[in-house]
């Protein structure tokens, strides 16, 4: 009797697993716009057409005008700093998409570009400038007719999630922070697809849903797909690597691991920070998946709204010679020319010459600015 019951249970599990696999495959077909089997063609062809048109509409998704203008201003400087270009690109969804897509098309060697750092280093500043000039823009005071207020809402939540993800990465010492910066910014890009494909999205689809998990379940129930899966499909359609697509499409999975778990937790923290409802159980479960316990999670939740310090990016190689860097380090310590000359066994005039060269290489006008620039670039 026990063996028979066990066999029935196992058979039931197999059927459930098979049904789940079928639903997942159907959802992926809908998201990708692939042709369904004949039995479901009439039911799903409308979904496929809607999603395909929405994917195409995302080609013209705008960047915030201020973000685009700041990127152009950074590149226009006489001494262009790669770190500043990277930070400007990472501040906007449309900018980072445009730069990553171009970098991956230009990449001929094996391997894909999945960080803004790699993309900016591969492309010249002039190329990034040209890309930014071609991107459409929106402004809070000049609403776009197609997207209305969607770019603003999307950008604010994307940046809040990016901010939370970087704070989590700091807490646990996660190494791939540059890639996490990209995936966290793009994690909800599938929502833009659904927004364009279904006029009633999200209000009519999310009726009664309060937490992120409940809203995802509502999407699956009403549309047959969810924004995470659609986002992963879109990332792949753009020719971006699986290292970006996979965490994005899995970031709402209850058993998310690795980078998907970072994004899942960061997304919940962003909702929490903005006054939205989140599940304490889901928060703690996901925190444990990245190695955070209750005490560490409490600290992050307490500090997050007040954490505004931007991470220093050590991207640009230091243009100073070892001797010049030694002079600048001692200037930073408050030492005068005579002390520096004595410590480095140099003449005072040679110290002055080194300082003149330092100003020229850094584009600084005085010692204070030279020290500030070198510190911001991570050279001091």
Strand arrangement across the biggest beta sheet: 1-2
Tell me the series of helices and strands, N- to C-terminal: HHEHHHHHEHHHHHHHHHHHHH
Biggest β-sheet description: 2 strands, parallel
CATH topology of the largest domain: Hypothetical protein af1432
| Low-confidence blocks of residues | 1-10, 13-24, 35-43
Quick tags:
380 residues, mainly alpha, Arc Repressor Mutant, subunit A, 3 domains, two-stranded parallel ribbon, 20 helices, elongated, disordered N terminus
Report on this model:
The chain is mainly alpha-helical. It folds into 3 domains: 63-138, no CATH class; 150-306, Hypothetical protein af1432 (Orthogonal Bundle), CATH 1.10.3210; 322-376, Orthogonal Bundle (Arc Repressor Mutant, subunit A), CATH 1.10.10.10. The chain is built from 20 helices and 2 strands. It has helices spanning 2-32, 41-57, 65-76, 82-89, 93-106, 116-122, 125-134, 150-172, 177-186, 189-197, 212-223, 227-237, 242-250, 258-273, 280-289, 294-303, 322-332, 337-344, 348-362, 367-376, and strands spanning 63-64, 137-138. Helix 12 packs antiparallel against helix 13.
Quick recap:
The protein is mostly helical and 380 residues long.
Write the layout of secondary structure elements.
Layout: H1 2-32, H2 41-57, E1 63-64, H3 65-76, H4 82-89, H5 93-106, H6 116-122, H7 125-134, E2 137-138, H8 150-172, H9 177-186, H10 189-197, H11 212-223, H12 227-237, H13 242-250, H14 258-273, H15 280-289, H16 294-303, H17 322-332, H18 337-344, H19 348-362, H20 367-376
Parallel strand pairs: 1-2
